[in-house]
Each structure stands twice: as structure tokens, then as C-alpha cells.
Amino acid sequence: MDKFIIKGGTPLKGTIAISGSKNAALPVIAGALLADSPVTIHNIPRLQDIYTFNNVLRVVGAKVDFKEQENTVEIDPTLVSYLEAPYDLVRKMRASFYMLGALVGKHGYAKVSLPGGCAWGPRPVDLHLKGMEAMGIKITLDKGYVIAKADQELNGESFTLKPSSVGATVNLLLAAVLRAKKFTINNAAKEPDVVQLCNFLVKMGANIEGIGTSALIIRKVEKLNGVEISNDPDRIELGTYMIAGAMHPDSELTLTGCNADHLGNFPDLLRQTGTEVTIDGSTIHIKAPKKLKPVSVKTDIYPGFPTDLQAQWATMLTQAEGESSVTDSVYFDRFSYVPELTRLGANMHVDQNTVHIKGKTPLTGASVMSTDLRASVSLVLAAMIAKNTTEVLRVYHLDRGYESLENKLNPVGAKITRAEDN
Ligand code: EPZ
To answer: Which one is catalytic: 118, 147, 202, 279?
Structure first.
């Protein structure tokens, strides 16, 4: 198990290239199983979650070739024969649950393990299952597995997601495009990850109306052809590095390969802290203010403030002059990073689904524990501006979602060493 040893106190100056999006890649990799011929996807990041998901596809019989140096995945779905996704893989990564929609959508049958909970509490899949039943798919539960069976044509008419759910929207799209006569998903997620999946499915031949809105209407088509697409850049990685560039008063970062359209109101919120944010096509320039202003935020579904940037934003606010708060309305208990940050000297406390922060507090290095992907990157952000040295343990959480983090940050001034944590 690796750890990071981080010597803090240095500003970040230079250029960082943004990688392909993990959360946008996973739905299209699953969607490739719906095709009658091979699919090629470019701009796929080299991340643990991608390797894990590629293995899930191999278990069901797909041929998956990840040309890592080119960040390209080639998937041949024509040999799929085993319609089960096993617990030992699904428990590693919740998005493996997309196999349910992909397999039952293409083959009329799927047996997929229920995903485990995760670091910040249980994460239900009831909307996925109720939505499929509303579509006309027969769902049964058997010893921790979901068994889904679907006729060639499904007559269910619609389902309303309460709350809106990215994963449920993805799974229902995958199940519907080859089988649902006409099915409407109401209160569908509008995240760019969902829009990319819809555009990919339509390019393969699917019939989807309302792309980018919260009402998606799917009409079945007989077949989908393999295509070649390029995956979106990672908007959460981008937001994370924008925040990193704001936290030390002398930092100045240039981020390349971005899609600022996927950031919603995030750039304006960051500007309110006094940070200079200049968007120039696919390049974003960040210049930190001498003094950070406190800006409270509340997360929301897209295009609101993303919950996946909640921990990073709260970490930045420990360096703002004044009081502020961050409320997570998507996940009510996604604050496992807070006790770790207080070990570094942060003055913050959680009250229900809000963390209250008093800044500016100088941070001093200590040993801290990663708990989930976004919490762990927040510990790295804090460690880079803390005095002395910080040890961030269990960085495997980071390797799930941030492509070569230390190789992106050290060239711009960070001092991060990866070490064995015996
Ligand atoms: C996706 O998770 C992302 N994961 C998450 O990113 C992200 O935090 C989340 O969307 C919200 O944006 C991937 O894309 C692989 P949801 P997902 O279903 O689809 C409730 C990261 O750090 N809900 O949109 O699982 C749920 O409890 C990860 O990269 C139900 O009640 O999230 C939550 O409160 C973490 N029943 C809300 O909906 C369900 O059946 C939103 O969850 C499904 C969800």
C-alpha cells in the first residue's frame, strides 16, 4: 500500500494537462457492449477504475485492448457470452453496476452483484431497479445478486428519478436503447457524463430525444454499430487543479485540454474568492489572490456545484480570510476528510450536511488517512500548502481517479514522493 510524503509550503507555477474523464469514460465503456461490432474510445485515463472495469468486460467475454500509451481502449463486444458480473469485481467499483443495463439491454439477461456501500455511507441502487421494472424488465434479487430479464420489446412508458441520479440514468439508457418501444426518463441527470453517453449511443444508431435535458425519450432500434469516439476531459480533475492553483498566494497555473463548458458556475464562484480565472478555448489560466475571500457553496446536481469538488473547495476555504460553509445536498455525509484536515490545523466542524470553516488557519504537516477518492485529493491540496512534511496514507484511493497525480504536480513545484507504506 503506497503513501505520499509531501513537503509543503511551495507555490505551484507552470502547466498541467487535464486527462480524460473517469466518470464519463465508464458509461461509454459499458455502452460498447451494446454494439454489434468493435468500439474505439480515445482519451481514456490510465486509472485503477478503468483497469478494473476493463477486467469486468473481459469476464463477460468482451475483448478489451487498452493501448495505454495512446490512452485508447478498443472493445470487441461480439464475443460476449457470460452474462454475469461477479461480486469480487463489482464491490471494488460501484460503476460496474452499469453491467446490469448493458447486459440486459443487449442480451435480455443479466446477473450482477449489488455494489458495496462506500466510504461515506450506503449508496443505494433502488432507482436503477425500480426504473428497469417500470420499463418492463423483470428484476429479482438472489443472495446479493440482481437478476434482470427482458423481452425483445418492452412496453413500459416512463419513470421519474427522485432524486435525480447519474448512475440510474446511465443504467436505464443502457437497458432501453435496444428494447424499450418508447420510454421516458423524467428528472434524468444532465451531467456531461450522461450527455456524452447519449451522443455516443446516437452515433451508434440509438434513438434518444431530449439529450442534455432532464427528460430523455428513448425509442428502441434493432441494432447498434460500433463507432470511434473521443472521451471528454475530466471536469472534476480540472476543478481540483483550479482549486490547487488558488491556495498559495504565489501560485499561477495553466491548465490545458479543458472543456470549461462542463464546469457550470464553478469558474464564477472561484472568481468570487479573488482568484483570477481566464478561459481561453481549451486552456484555463489560474492566478491565486494574495488573500482568498471566503465563498460558501451548496452542492447540487448539474449544472450546480459538483459534489465531487465539495471536499476540495472546503479545503481551500481553510485558507480564506473569514468564515464560510459548504453544504452537500447530494451526499449528506461526505465529510470524512474533515477530521483529517483538523489534524493539520484546520478550524472546521460538521453540522449535519454542512461543514463550517474558520480561516485563515496555517496548516502544519502530520500523518493523515485517505478515505475516499475526493477526500484524499483534498489532503494532498492541504499538504502542499502546509508547513513541514505531511504523510498521506492509502493513496490507492487517489490512484482510482487521478492519473499520475505526483507526475503532474511535481513539475509545477509540488514536492510529493510516493513511498511504500509497510
Ligand atoms: C456518480 O455516482 C459519480 N460516479 C460520483 O462520483 C458522483 O459523486 C455522483 O454521480 C454524483 O454526481 C460515477 O460517475 C462513476 P448518483 P452515482 O446516483 O451515479 C441517490 C467520484 O468521486 N441515489 O447520481 O452513484 C444517491 O444516494 C464519484 O468520482 C438513490 O437514492 O451517484 C445520492 O444521494 C463518487 N438511489 C444521489 O442519488 C439510487 O438508486 C445521487 O447519486 C441511486 C442514487
So the answer is: 118
Q: Which CATH number fits domain 22-218: 3.65.10.10, 3.30.565.10, 3.40.50.720, 3.30.450.20?
A: 3.65.10.10
- What is the SS3 assignment for 126? helix
Q: Which CATH architecture has domain 2-19+234-420?
A: Alpha-beta prism (3.65)
Domain residues of the chain, as ranges?
2-19+234-420, 22-218
For the stretch 360-373, what's the b/e string if a residue is b when 16 or more beta carbons lie within 10 angstroms of its beta carbon? ebebebbebbbbbb
Reported as a single tens digit per residue, the pLDDT across 109-156 is 999 998 865 545 567 899 999 999 999 999 999 888 999 999 999 999
Neighbours of 385 (CB within 10 A): 23
Identify the DSSP state of 16: E
Å from CA of 108 to ligand 1 middle = 25
DSSP SS3 for 387: strand
Question: For 324-372, how does the pLDDT look when each residue is reduced to its tens digit (9 = 90+)?
Answer: 999 999 998 899 999 999 999 999 999 999 999 999 999 999 999 988 8
Q: Ligand 1 centroid to 390 CA: how many Å?
A: 31
Told to judge if 118 belongs to the known catalytic residues of this protein, a careful annotator would answer yes
Report d(CA 265, CA 276) in Å as an integer: 15
Whole-angstrom Cα distance, residue 147 to residue 32? 21
Domain 22-218 in the same topology as domain 2-19+234-420: yes
Q: What residues are paired with 14 via a beta bridge?
A: 253
Name residues whose C-beta falls within 8 Å of residue 310's C-beta, 6 or more positions apart in sequence. 297, 299, 326, 328, 334, 374
401 lines ligand 1 (CB under 6 A): yes
Give the whole-angstrom CA distance, residue 299 versus residue 163: 14
For residue 39, what are the contacts with CB-CB under 8 A and spacing of at least 6? 32, 74, 75, 77, 204, 226, 227, 228, 229
Q: Is the CB of 356 under 6 A from ligand 1?
A: no
